[in-house]
Every structure is written in structure tokens, then in C-alpha cells.
């Protein structure tokens, strides 16, 4: 919904690009502040989630998110931009708690080898929401309420509905029975968690990934609206957001299957089936013809080939997908018309496995430091606040199209992290094999 808010508030308050990007700065800045406070608290008293439980952590996050949504009412009532930013900040704090509690919880519910598969699956349903939201939210904001001349009411009513949903979800999660998990090992106070190179490098990878993904989504409507690209109105351009975020859904369902323990033939058939089903959902809600969307289908085929090349190895797949995004961004920057548009929209498909793969690689082997490490990773979501702001400044200076040099640099780092983590994994496997051989020879 932030991608809908940005052009709406930009027009409502007559903002520059960098000022409009304060929407993402406030929202994702909350991730940094919230997770920093969590991390500092864990250094002082131990892991808070381990004390209150993962289920209560999720409930707390949902409740805080509902409060953030309800704050849109006074923000719209008084029509002050700063009030909107404060509401987004509180909403972001709620999501911070959800990220710290839910991601590690999903990871530890089964074997470490299939943790990335489970995270891909949960993130795929997250992407289902980000696919539907731009269409539904864009209709409510740009066409239904705004066309009625309601001004601030255009966002007040939708966010009251969202707040009610979050509150109901908090009640449901409080009442249902979920498997309990607590780490019986005592978390040592201090900064020992940073000794893990996969985590320390991974925090930067999360920073640039979230920043790059959010920046592209934030500028997509404005990019499509450029005369040299498509020159579309906001109400029409919003439909392409469904393809951008829906691409992540396609890739994450495929990623969950790819990283699972299914037999190879069945695995690839299931990937094709879920891709067709997911595309059908996007196509049905975005009102864009097949004749126009054929380049997107081509990107899906390339993405399928990338999964095969990745061989279900997290680091290798991450590097290949980053290389795919870099290629698409270069294409979007150097071409015009529908080719540039679909190249940028297609980035969403390759973004799909990045969060779960980076997260899984980063917390692998952390043991008693898992939740503490997770708070550092969530802190790195700060990238979603700073990178769009940086691209906003670049857009004001060099234009929207060339400003995508900013996320391109982000994905160059992710490419390096994928390559390095794959190398680390092979080194660890070799050491483990040598250790096992030594034990066997001793016996």
C-alpha cells in the first residue's frame, strides 16, 4: 500500500520526489529503531522472544500494526503530512515485531535443510497480499473515494478497515494453539553473534535487498507514467504493481517447491503448475491482456531456467537471481517503451527468493543466537527507508530512469554475497567431511 500512498500523497501535498520517499523512510525507519531497541534489550536481559514466546510476539506485532492503521484517521482528519508519517512509523514498529517473531519461528519448525523452503512458502502468501493490495487499495484510493472528492478520506477509510483486520488477527493468534519453542541454551550477553560471517555479511545483504526492492516498487508508477516509457495515468499504472509484487509470489511458490525434498520430476512439474496458477491470479485482477503481457511470460520462463541452474542451493540460486535482476535493470535504464517497462516489472519475479534465501543463509548455525541474529537482520530493513530516499535524490538530479543505478548497485552486492556464501558452504562441508573421515579412521 505504500506504493499507492506515495503518488497519492505526492499529489495531495505537492511534494518533490525525495519528500514523497519519506513515506518509505518513516515506515522502514521503524524497522531499524524497533529492531535496534530489541537488540539492545537482548544484550541486557537476554532474548525477549525467548521469554514471552513466539506466539505472543506475533500477537503483539499485530496489535501494534492495528494501532498504526487507526492513526491514519486523525492524520487524514487534520491533513498534515507529518501525521501520516507518524502513523506509518507505528505501523512499521508492529511489522518489526512480526518479522522478529515470525521468520525465525518458521525456520525452526523443521529441519534446517528445508528452512529456506518454508520461508519461501510463507513469503509467497505475503506476496499474494502485495499482489492484491495495489489493485484493491489503488481502486479505493484513486478511483472510489478520491473520485468522490473526499481528499484525505481516500486513505482514512481503507486504513480503518486494515486496522480492524489486524486487530481481529491478533485475537485469533492469541486464541489458537501453535507449537511452542524455546531455546533452553542461555544466550550470552554481548556482541558474540557478530562473529558469524554469514550473519555480518547477511545484514548488509538484507539492507540492500529490501532497499532495492522497495525503491523499484516506489518508483514503478512514476516510471510507467514517463512519456518515453508508457505515459500512463496513475489509476492505470497501478495495475502493473500487481505484476511486480505478483512476480515475487510466482517465484516464492516455485522457490518453496524447488528447495523442498520432492523428487526432481514432480518438483519441476509442480513449479510449472503453481507458476501458471499464480499468473492466472495476477492476470485476472490486473486487467492487462495476454497480447500486452507476453514479455512478462518470457521473464517467467527465464526465471524457471534460473531455478534449474540454481540446483536448489541457496547461495548459488541467490547469485543467479541477482545477476538476472542486474540484467533487467540495465535493460530498463537503456531502453524505452514496453521493453523498459516490462524489464522493470519483471524484477519482481527475481526478487522472489532473496529474502528467504538471505535470511536462511544468515541465521544458519547461529543456535542460541538465532533470535538475536534475526533482530539484526530485521534492523537491516532500514535499507527500505534509506535506499528509496537516495534514489529520490538521484531522480531529482538525473531523472527517474537513470536513477535506477541506485538499486542496481544494491543487487551487485547481493550477487557477491550469494557467491561468497556458496563458497563458505562448500568449505564447511569439506571440513565436516574431513572431520568425519578422521573419526572413522580413529575407530
TrEMBL record:
Location(s), subcellular: Cell inner membrane
Q: Mind telling me what this protein is named?
A: L-fucose:H+ symporter permease
Taking the first listed entry, what is the main subcellular location of this protein, grouped into a coarse class? membrane
The UniProt entry lists membrane topology as: Multi-pass membrane protein
UniProt KW keywords: Cell membrane, Membrane, Transmembrane, Transmembrane helix
- Transmembrane stretches in the record are 20-41, 53-73, 79-103, 124-145, 157-178, 199-221, 241-259, 268-287, 293-310, 317-334, 340-362, 374-394, 400-420
Q: Major facilitator superfamily (MFS) profile domain: from which residue to which, for each copy?
A: 1-182
Checking InterPro entries in the record gives: MFS, MFS_dom, MFS_trans_sf, MFS_TsgA-like
Q: Which domain of life is it from?
A: Bacteria
Q: Which gene encodes it?
A: fucP_2
Amino acid at each position: 500500500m505504500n506504493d499507492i500512498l506515495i503518488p497519492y500523497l505526492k499529489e495531495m501535498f505537492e511534494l518533490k520526489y525525495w519528500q514523497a520517499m519519506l513515506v518509505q523512510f518513516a515506515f522502514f525507519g521503524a524497522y531499524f529503531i524497533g529492531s535496534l531497541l530489541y537488540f539492545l534489550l537482548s544484550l541486557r536481559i537476554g532474548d525477549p522472544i525467548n521469554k514471552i514466546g513466539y506466539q505472543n510476539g506475533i500477537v503483539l506485532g499485530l496489535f501494534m500494526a492495528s494501532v498504526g492503521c487507526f492513526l491514519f484517521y486523525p492524520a487524514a482528519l487534520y491533513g498534515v503530512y507529518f501525521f501520516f508519517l507518524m502513523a506509518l512509523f507505528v505501523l512499521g514498529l508492529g511489522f518489526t515485531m512480526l518479522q522478529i517473531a515470525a521468520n525465525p519461528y518458521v525456520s525452526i519448525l523443521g529441519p534446517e535443510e528445508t528452512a529456506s523452503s518454508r520461508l519461501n512458502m510463507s513469503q509467497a502468501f505475503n506476496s499474494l497480499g502485495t499482489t492484491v493490495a495495489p489493485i484493491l487499495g489503488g481502486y479505493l484510493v484513486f478511483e472510489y473515494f478520491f473520485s468522490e472528492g473526499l481528499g484525505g478520506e481516500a486513505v482514512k477509510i481503507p486504513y480503518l478497515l486494515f486496522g480492524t483486520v489486524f486487530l481481529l488477527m491478533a485475537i485469533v493468534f492469541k486464541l489458537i494453539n501453535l507449537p511452542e519453542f524455546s531455546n533452553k541454551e542461555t544466550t550470552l550477553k554481548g556482541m558474540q553473534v557478530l562473529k558469524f560471517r554469514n550473519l555480518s555479511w547477511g545484514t548488509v545483504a538484507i539492507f540492500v535487498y529490501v532497499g532495492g526492492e522497495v525503491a523499484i516498487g516506489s518508483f514503478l508508477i512514476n516510471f510507467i507514467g514517463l512519456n518515453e516509457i508508457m505515459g500512463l495515468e496513475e489509476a492505470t499504472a497501478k495495475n502493473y504493481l500487481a505484476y511486480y509484487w505478483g512476480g515475487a509470489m510466482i517465484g516464492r511458490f516455485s522457490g518453496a517447491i524447488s528447495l523442498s525434498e520432492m523428487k526432481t520430476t514432480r518438483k519441476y512439474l509442480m513449479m510449472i503448475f503453481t507458476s501458471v496458477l499464480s499468473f492466472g491470479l495476477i492476470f485476472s485482477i490486473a486487467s492487462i491482456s495476454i497480447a500486452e503481457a507476453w514479455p512478462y511470460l518470457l521473464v517467467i520462463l527465464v526465471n524457471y531456467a534460473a531455478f534449474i541452474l540454481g540446483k536448489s542451493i541457496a547461495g548459488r540460486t541467490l547469485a543467479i537471481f541477482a545477476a538476472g535482476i542486474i540484467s533487467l535493470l540495465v535493460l530498463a535504464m537503456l531502453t524505452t517503451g514496453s521493453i523498459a517497462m516490462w524489464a522493470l516489472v519483471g524484477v519482481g519475479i527475481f526478487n522472489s527468493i532473496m529474502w528467504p534465501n538471505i535470511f536462511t543463509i544468515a541465521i544458519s548455525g547461529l543456535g542460541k543466537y538465532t533470535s538475536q541474529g534475526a533482530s539484526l537482520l530485521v534492523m537491516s530493513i532500514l535499507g527500505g527507508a534509506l535506499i528509496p530516499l537516495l534514489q529520490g535524490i538521484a531522480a531529482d538530479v538525473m531523472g527517474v530512469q537513470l536513477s535506477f543505478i541506485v538499486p542496481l548497485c544494491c543487487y551487485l552486492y547481493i550477487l557477491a554475497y550469494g557467491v561468497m556464501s556458496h563458497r563458505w558452504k562448500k568449505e564447511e562441508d569439506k571440513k565436516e567431511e574431513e572431520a568425519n573421515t578422521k573419526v572413522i579412521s580413529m575407530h
